[in-house]
Structure prediction request, 165 residues.
Amino acid sequence: MESALYREFFESPAGWVEITASSSAVESVLFRGQVRPETLQPSLLTSQCADELRAYFKGALKQFSIPMNLRGTPFQTGVWNQVRQVPYGAVTTYNALAAALGKPQAVRAVGMANGKNRLLVLIPCHRVVGADGSMVGYAGELWRKKWLLEMEARFSGKGQLSLEF
Prediction:
């Protein structure tokens, strides 16, 4: 039996964020533009996730501890787990992720899996860039990807992005 879903919205420096959770894990974290949506059924988990995200946006949190439900194929969850290993303030490429998964020819599949990530920021798919360092693909819009990377670089003391391979 499927548990009820809870939903909460909060305003981040990068726009409104919608958090959806079951009774046991966060199901999605998605950017929803600049207009405040109506808040529906918050829960302890959605509030804890919002608190962690607020701390992240202030530069005080580098890793999330909130339970997450990675809903996807085994390949997708493998990609997302690999993305979670990219350190705060660093970036990697789709090529490097494919190689780390032992599937160097699967660069496009890695990109597609990354694009299906519904736990934006928690699974930091914004830290994945093109082979030439270009800002490509982000479900939360490219301007947010750039903003998140610049914010992390600033709070990590690196000043500029570094590629992790």
Remarks:
- The first strand starts at residue 6 and ends at 12.
- The longest helix spans residues 142-156.
- The mean pLDDT is 89.
